[in-house]
Amino acid sequence: MSAPLATALGAPLAQIWVYLSASPLLGLTVTLLAYQGAFALYRKAKFHPAANPVLLAVAFLVALLAITGTPYQTYFDGAQFVHFLLGPATVALAIPLYAQIKRVKAMFWPILIALVAGCLTAALSAMAVGKLFGASLATLLSLAPKSVTTPIAMGIAERTGGLPSLTAVLVITTGILGAVGARYLFDALNIKDHAVRGFAIGIASHGIGTARAFQVSEQCGAFAALAMGLNGALTALLLPVVLPWVKSWLG
């Protein structure tokens, strides 16, 4: 318990917080309430991308943990139930994708080319920018999988010599930036096709971008889910092969 919290809440409330923080359900409850509150603000903002509910909920949770002095592991002991549900939620994305199966088949070759190009561009461009700004090798290796969903990205970082915890932060940041800014970029480039928009944001911004795509249309979300899954698998296969050459180039 941090001193500022005890001062702000007073001794009785501070004691209640200490008691509640020992329960693993606190992390789950706070996470759900934070997202519901953030989504209510998102709705009030008429679903403006800048009011992304993931961004708002993360900011609230970070502030809460910092103010209360609650260790992250204590919080995650409860929030891990939400983390577990990421698996079934990802599998469930196959349902809207199946509804678009005819168009997926018709666009097989464009999808394959875009997938390979997007996978390599996302990884190598991030490393090139990091190198330009003088980032360490460990940081560059942590940057490489930043456009892949968090569990896969952390596994890649650990295997290739990156920092999994840093990769997790970069992945979330990438997803939020994509969800907030993708619409403006697509409009500037005059890209109107929802399948194309969805596939692009799925490659670049994984699950958070995919959630945003589903708010645009089912087709946009389905192609984003397809891109997210394929990009995760391809990145996990390609990066360990490509990175040794990149490491030698980086010195």
UniProtKB/TrEMBL annotation:
Record Pfam families: LrgB
Domain of life: Bacteria
Membrane topology: Multi-pass membrane protein
Listed GO MF terms: hydrolase activity
Location(s), subcellular: Membrane
TM segment ranges: 16-42, 54-75, 81-99, 111-143, 163-186, 222-246
Tagged with keyword Aminoacyl-tRNA synthetase: no
Keyword Transport: no
InterPro entries for this protein: CidB/LrgB
GO CC annotations on file: membrane
Keywords recorded for this protein, A-Z: Hydrolase, Membrane, Transmembrane, Transmembrane helix
Protein name: Putative effector of murein hydrolase
Origin species: Azospira oryzae (strain ATCC BAA-33 / DSM 13638 / PS) (Dechlorosoma suillum)
